[in-house]
Amino acid sequence: xxxxxxxxxxxxxxxxxxxxxxxxxxxxxxxxxxxxxxxxxxxxxxxxxxxxxxxxxxxxxxxxxxxxxxxxxxxxxxxxxxxxxxxxxxxxxxxxxxxxxxxxxxxxxxxxxxxxxxxxxxxxxxxxxxxxxxxxxxxxxxxxxxxxxxxxxxxxxxxxxxxxxxxxxxxxxxxxxxxxxxxxxxxxxxxxxxxxxxxxxxxxxxxxxxxxxxxxxxxxxxxxxxxxxxxxxxxxxxxxxxxxxxxxxxxxxxxxxxxxxxxxxxxxxxxxxxxxxxxxxxxxxxxxxxxxxxxxxxxxxxxxxxxxxxxxxxxxxxxxxxxxxxxxxxxxxxxxxx
Length: 338
Prior knowledge:
The protein is of the alpha+beta class.
């Protein structure tokens, strides 16, 4: 099992639920970057959304890598408490919970691991990964690069999408500060009603998170195997319950003809090449185009018996964190970034 994502920035997770802690080590962060601890706390508090019954998240204890609120250039290590079940389940249950990776976890560990804990591995490490996203997001925002996400769809209820061409900083910040992250609050109320109805019926709900990043210059990333879209997707698939990722028009482009998908370009008065539409989602052949990056991530419903019955509001923070981390890693190669 790999718990390391290695690029210009390396992210390594450690810990187990039975030990009561999970942690993360982030290598490659430039020295001298100001990190506001209050902003980190505010960022992680979003995982505790009361609107969907989110549990209170313990704030991380930073062990190394930051001194006097400045990065040292060394490995940034932080640990966080994780909840431990009151009663430890049998390591070898007679009936594996289908869909919870009990069986696959047992096979992976050859029977030497708590299968229930193994099935929750990605869930345990999601908050530490969000810590990495909070740190990377602060560094990016001081360069004018902003990332935000919202619930685009939950069950059969849709929110308004981001403006993929003219999205602004205010458009990102306005949804990021909401307890229930949607653009249109009326759609959010309908979603909350649907969550309540599902909980009462003993059902669970999934959804789609739309994430956008703005003000990224063109040419960031790499073609073929180390493309920016590749790295974003790799981090995203470390998040619990993800079933699919698409950039820009994504899967709907398969239903288009070439003239519908093509983004016509023009040159602004400032000399920048931009497009009138953004079917490509801000990334072409692994490299940024200068347009907003738009990525949609689909989440399956949690299995019955889990609480809360819908975790899509927390998933918004997970997605944003993964994109922040991949973006900063790619930006370190960009001239004059540091």
